[in-house]
Amino acid sequence: MTIPARLGIVTLGVADLARSVAFYEAFGWERCASSNDDIAWFRTADTHIGLFPWHELAVDARLPEEPRAPFGGITLAINVDTAEDVAPFLDAIVAAGGSLLKPASIMDWGGTSGYAADPDGHPWEIAHNPHFPIDAEGRVHIP
Question: pTM higher than 0.85 for the full model?
Answer without folding.
Answer: yes
